[in-house]
Structure prediction request, 407 residues.
Amino acid sequence: MNAPHIAIAGAGTAGHHLAATLREQGFAGTVSLIGDEPDLPYHRPPLSKDYLAGTVNSDALSLRAPTFYAEHDIVTHLGVPVRQIDRAGHRLVLADDRVLAYDHLVLALGASPRRIDIPGRNLDGVVELRTRADAEWLRDNLRDGSRLVVVGGGFIGLEVAATARKRGADVTVLEALPALMNRALSVHTATHLAELHAAHGVRVMCSTTAAALEGKDGRVHTVTTSDGQRLPADIVVLGIGVVPNTAPAAAAGLEIDNGIVVDEQLATRDPSISAIGDCAAFPLPCGNRIRLESIQNAVDQARYLARRIVGHTEPYIAVPYFWSDQFGTKLQIVGYATRSDRTVVRTSGTKISNFRFYDGELVAVESINDPVTHLNVRKILTAGGTVTPKQANSTVDLRTLARTLVG
Ligand code: FAD
Prediction:
């Protein structure tokens, strides 16, 4: 194929890293990056942390300087969604009716906040947090003494709660399940986070949801909870998770199953279309299919796919990891625990790492202010090794174990 055209739908983390890595890998064809947001690709993690706190400016959000794209011959089409994929014609139709022909299409469409249908959902002051514009609204409207109700005690909800509390807001978190982060974390780590938030004055109400939002003159002022309490609120953040952006792929007849289904090379059943990042459901070596929502996953998949496009054929294998910052506490998770039947707690002073096992096998490690253990476990898992419950529990030097494996 002569000077092929790689079209990337979605100008977020995965889209940016794919375009940049294609150039690093010496790809000489055309690279187009198409995004529905008006901005060049930017970092999302600060949106609930430093950017929301107002301690970093918008320059710190940019993934690269604006000149990077022209310098690397990456054509950007911003503020315009991909409306339709014409698979037979190998063409994309954009929302402004422009048509782009492609040789290979990469869907890097990300995810959108899960909708919650409760009365008052559309009142002013009721917001979600996914984009830079969402974060700027929240940053500019949160004040010392603002009454903030966060619906959903997941990562983003808890980070918003911590940042808002530090800015002097009066914060309540409503979590439908009996404990915070019930599905994602061990009970040890979830309890640690709940205590951390309580110690900083965040009111966490578990087994409680928002039943209705009431307003005055179009603006929210009260949240009625599922158990009938009425909470005064100036701002309500809805943070009950995200759903993958799959609409153009589904309309084009691609397989969807909690994300755009791809194989171990991140290709859909259409060999001319791949998917990466938050929108892609990919197989683990054990055969289970998962979809991850993390920077590391978006970056690793983008880098892998760039290599595949220029001719490498190995399957995609990566050890997932994730981080979160709340009240100066750094939580790092390596691995992915869909289930676990045993947790071994390893502590050293204020450093804690919770090693989670299923059927004797290590599935994930949650480290609280313990970056060294996190890094050593990552090295061990990446090298194909593991940590036994005995090694997790004892004074075994994990760095030596990692060195033995990595060589
Ligand atoms: P995105 O970065 O969301 O990019 C997808 C892009 O595609 C978006 O711009 C979207 O608008 C666009 N798009 C969608 N549909 C179309 C269409 N039809 N046409 C054109 N464009 C389209 N992860 C971590 O690992 N650690 C953290 O601490 C962390 N904190 C976070 C805090 C916040 C507030 C948020 C929102 C996310 C956070 N994440 C964090 C998650 C992380 O940002 C995502 O996993 C990552 O951005 C996924 O990259 P992506 O490229 O798949 O999706």
About this structure: DSSP finds eleven helices and 26 strands in the chain. The first helix runs from residue 13 to 24.
